[in-house]
Structures are given as structure tokens and as C-alpha cells.
Design brief:
CATH superfamily of the largest domain: Winged helix-like DNA-binding domain superfamily/Winged helix DNA-binding domain
Number of domains: 2
Number of strands: 0
Structural class: mainly alpha
CATH topology of the largest domain: Arc Repressor Mutant, subunit A
CATH class of the largest domain: Mainly Alpha
Number of helices: 12
Helix content: 55-70%
Order of helices and strands: HHHHHHHHHHHH
Shape: elongated
Largest sheet: none
Strand content: under 5%
């Protein structure tokens, strides 16, 4: 069976969206199905080995189907970009539902993040792993081991508190804008957030900044980054986790000054 060309795809979208043709819908799902494997591979690269890759693909397939059903071609957006977010969201939602992260790991994550925030405030810079380990009275290897375990906590639930150390901290869900509301400050806040993020990344140690750049901007996998840095994939995962926790603390701190 030949791959549909650009005109074929347009015909499939037109047929499905205008008449609800199920064969056109199935054709679209089949054509874009490789996106599911791609996203599942990216998400699964940092998960424990007991998480089955096939399960991630199954979760992501529901996201693809949802994307095909809800996509509006007339808006002029690229479907692949829209679908990737839907697929990733479907996978993460199901992982949260399974709740495969032990409470002890979550507790360690909060403790490490709290220590990093305190050191960042005290030193006025991102603390090194050695400084975090010393503050927590842990061997460096143990800290790195724990960073590897909590790497998967980057999947934040919407009802998780922005700052677990504050009793009255707002939840992530409270930060989501109402798409129907008029927001005259939206563009300014977006630019301000972009500036804060860029500034925070620039303040990270060189290796952490490089890992974030290669992973999020260049699209390299953790294993590929390990090859660039000549370290193991698990070490890259640890560096990535510490960098993300540092950025999170930088965004939390201004709100509590």
C-alpha cells in the first residue's frame, strides 16, 4: 500500500471533516501512527524498565485518535505539532492514573528540591551536586542514585502544588488560562516568562545547560546526549533532573519574595 501524498492527505481530511467518512478517519490514523511510536520512545526513555513500551504506544494511540477527531485543518496549524502534544498528554495522563511512582521517591524529590532552593537562595547561584549532597549529609553517589530514581517525576499532575513546602501554595491547574477570557497582559506575560526561562537556563552550569539544549532544542535522546558527553544514559538522566529542579526553584522563588 503506497503512502498517501500531500493531495491524498488533504482529500482524507476533507472527506473526514466534511462527511465523517470512517474510512478517511482510519486512513488518517494509519498515516500518522508513526508519531505514536516516536513520542512513546521519547517518553519511555526516562521511565523504569518495568514500564512496557507497548503500553505507552497503546496509551498514545488514544491520544492520536483524539487529535484526529478534534483537529481543525481550517485553522492552518500543522497537524503533527498538535498531535504530538495530544499523544504525549494521553501517555502521561495514563501514567499518572497508574501511579507507579512510590511515595518514598516523591518524598525524596521534595527533600532534594527544598535543599536546592535553600542553597540557591544562600549561594545566589545554582548549587553543585557536591554542595547538595553535603547539605543533605549524603554521599555523592547516593544523591545521584536518587536523582535517577526521581527523574520520572517531571510528569507533573495538574493538581500538584507549585511549591510543596508552602501550605497555601497554588496548584498547577490554577495557573491555566481560560481560553475564552480576554487577557490584555497575555503577550507581555508570555514574553516575560520566555525571558525568565532563558535567563534561568543561562545561569545553569555548563553541562546542565548543554543537556537541556541538546534534549529540548536539538531533539537528541538521553542515550545520544550520553554519547556526546561521553557519559552513561543514566548519568545524563541525573544531570537533566537536577537542571529541571533548579529551573523549577527559580520560577517558584520570585513568587515568594
Amino acid at each position: 500500500m503506497r503512502e498517501p501524498g500531500e493531495q491524498d492527505l488533504q482529500d482524507l481530511w476533507t472527506g473526514f471533516k466534511s462527511t465523517g467518512d470512517e474510512r478517511a478517519r482510519e486512513g488518517l490514523i494509519l498515516h500518522y501512527s508513526p508519531l505514536v511510536k516516536f513520542v512513546a520512545g521519547r517518553v519511555g526513555s526516562g521511565l523504569p524498565r518495568n514500564v512496557d513500551q507497548n503500553d505507552l504506544v497503546s496509551f498514545g494511540t488514544f491520544g492520536l485518535i483524539d487529535a484526529v477527531d478534534k483537529f481543525e485543518p481550517e485553522r492552518g496549524f500543522k497537524f503533527e505539532t498538535y498531535a504530538v502534544n495530544r499523544i504525549k498528554g494521553a501517555i502521561l495522563d495514563e501514567l499518572r492514573h497508574l501511579d507507579w511512582v512510590p511515595r518514598s521517591v516523591r518524598a525524596r524529590a521534595r527533600e532534594i528540591q527544598r535543599t536546592m532552593a535553600e542553597l540557591n537562595h544562600k549561594l545566589q547561584r545554582t548549587p553543585t551536586e557536591d554542595e547538595v549532597a553535603e547539605a543533605m549529609e549524603l554521599p555523592l553517589d547516593t544523591l545521584r542514585e536518587q536523582l535517577g530514581e526521581i527523574a520520572n517525576l517531571g510528569f507533573v499532575a495538574l493538581d500538584e502544588l507549585l511549591n510543596p513546602t508552602e501550605r497555601d501554595s497554588g496548584a498547577m491547574s490554577e495557573m491555566i488560562a481560560d481560553p475564552g477570557a480576554i487577557d490584555p497582559l497575555g503577550n507581555f506575560e508570555k514574553e516575560e516568562t520566555r525571558y525568565m526561562l532563558a535567563d534561568s537556563i543561562n545561569r545553569l552550569p555548563d553541562r546542565e545547560r548543554l543537556v537541556l539544549t541538546l534534549y529540548y532544542y536539538e531533539g537528541l535522546t538521553l542515550a545520544e546526549i550520553g554519547g556526546v558527553l561521553n557519559v552513561t544514559e543514566s548519568r545524563v538522566c541525573q544531570i537533566h533532573t537536577k537542571a529541571v529542579m533548579s529551573l523549577r526553584n527559580r520560577f517558584i522563588e520570585p513568587a515568594h519574595r
